[in-house]
Write a structure and sequence with these properties.
Layout (H helix, E strand, L loop, with lengths): L2 H45 L18 H13 L7 H7 L1 E3 L9 E4 L9 E7 L2 E6 L6 E6 L3 H5 L1 E6 L27 H15 L11 E14 L4 E16 L5 E11 L4 E13 L2 E6 L1 E4 L12 E2 L5 E7 L3 E3 L2 E12 L1 E2 L8 H8 E12 L1 H4 L1
Antiparallel strand pairs: 1-6, 2-3, 2-6, 3-4, 4-5, 7-8, 7-18, 8-9, 9-10, 10-11, 10-12, 11-14, 13-17, 14-16, 15-16, 16-18
Helix pairs in contact: 1-2
């Protein structure tokens, strides 16, 4: 290679490296700009509802409870699906120090004797936040200050669910305002009228529409257990695929779905139809009938047993906090489930045989996303 070619080659390499260095910088700037737009949008949207009444369990658009208000405006303003309760929201967000607070972040409070997070508001800057308060001299959707004695005493922390925005909007620790900006407060009657108009436009009278509250879940997990008929030892039990839909409109989230289980332990293929109930984002129970294909036998033996259609299966599912990419959440899950088997004559198996045949753990991955991703 001559010197001219070598020079051109080196120049090309430097240029390519420069482009690679520029890409993350540019991407970061775009992300920051987009996040700032989201933050300004959700704050502006939240201010529209100041003066609306409080109602326990309500998610708008005419009334709200505290988490229902945040749940509603996050979906309505920036199309982000948050958990339904304040405690679940606190587990969902990235906890941040007060020095990193930006408008659009969430602030949490412990207002009950239980000492757990029980109240949430939207931070709007200058030590102020908008929230749906249930009692006190001012209730409904109001603006308050973090400097007020009550909120200062019950403050639990802050969390971020949007990407960081422009740094000029960062937490202003020098502000000592002890009350919310009065310019934010508008007559409640005018606000209720605005809410009625929005309800008519959306075609719904209960806040977020039913279809928008539907979350799809898909999971894949290997099954295993700790028992065989004659020893205590971890053993492989098969593979489990599950698909279900959950309604996230209420504090308790019902759902329904179907499993496909290759139950290697008892040598059958099973199709459980399950009904689920989620208490939090991290725990749910399920139960339902089971369709079994094949002739089951006790694990590691030739002893034939009989599957039960109903009662079929019951279980409890736990999951870790999610890894979130856009609207998609990915979680590590751990299920503990029991499938009913009987003796070939229909009589109950012994306790040890029932545990050996029916008690299974599933460790895997669950992917969750809103159904509206495909319908809008």
């Amino acid at each position: 290679m001559n010197k001219l070619s070598e020079s051109r080659h080196n120049a090309a390499v430097v240029f390519i490296l420069f482009l690679f260095l520029c890409i993350p910088v540019t991407a970061g700037e775009l992300t920051s700009a987009h996040a700032q737009v989201q933050r300004e949008t959700i704050v502006a949207d939240a201010k529209k509802y100041i003066g609306f009444p409080y109602a326990d369990g309500a998610v708008g658009p005419d009334s709200f409870d505290c988490s229902g208000f945040i749940y509603f405006i996050a979906h309505d303003a920036v199309n982000v699906q948050l958990p339904r309760t304040a405690k679940a929201m606190y587990s969902f967000v990235k906890v941040i120090p007060d020095t990193s607070l930006e408008p659009g972040d969430l602030v949490f409070f412990k207002t009950t004797e239980a000492g757990t997070v029980s109240h949430v508001g939207l931070y709007i800057g200058k030590r102020q936040f908008i929230h749906a308060a249930s009692d006190g001299p001012n209730n409904g959707v109001i603006a308050s200050s973090l400097n007020e004695s009550y909120w200062k005493a019950h403050y639990a922390g802050a969390g971020k669910f949007l990407e960081p925005g422009d740094s000029s909007y960062s937490f202003d620790k020098d502000k000592e305002d002890n009350s919310a900006d009065s310019s934010l407060i508008e007559p409640a009657a005018e606000k209720r009228s605005a809410g009625e108009g929005r309800s008519a436009e959306s075609g719904a009278s209960g806040g977020i529409s039913f279809s928008d509250s539907l979350m799809c879940n898909f999971s894949l997990s290997p099954d295993w257990s700790l028992f065989t008929t004659n020893q205590f030892v971890p053993n492989y039990r098969g593979l489990n695929v599950q698909a279900d839909v959950t309604v996230t409109k209420w504090p308790l989230n019902p759902g329904a779905g179907i499993m496909m289980r290759w139950n290697y332990g008892v040598h059958t293929f099973q199709i459980p139809v399950v009904f689920t109930l989620s208490f939090t984002d991290f725990m749910r129970i399920y139960a339902g009938p089971v369709i079994t294909i094949g002739s089951p036998s006790l694990p590691a033996t030739e002893t034939e047993i009989k599957s039960s259609f109903f009662p079929g299966i019951a279980g409890i599912s736990f999951c870790l906090p999610s890894f979130t990419h856009g609207k998609v959440q990915v979680r590590i899950i751990q299920d503990l489930c029991y499938t009913v088997f009987n003796d070939t004559d229909g009589a109950a198996l012994s306790f040890s045989e029932s545990v050996t045949a029916g008690l299974v753990l599933s460790t895997g991955v669950r992917v969750t996303f809103p159904l509206s991703m495909f319908t809008k």
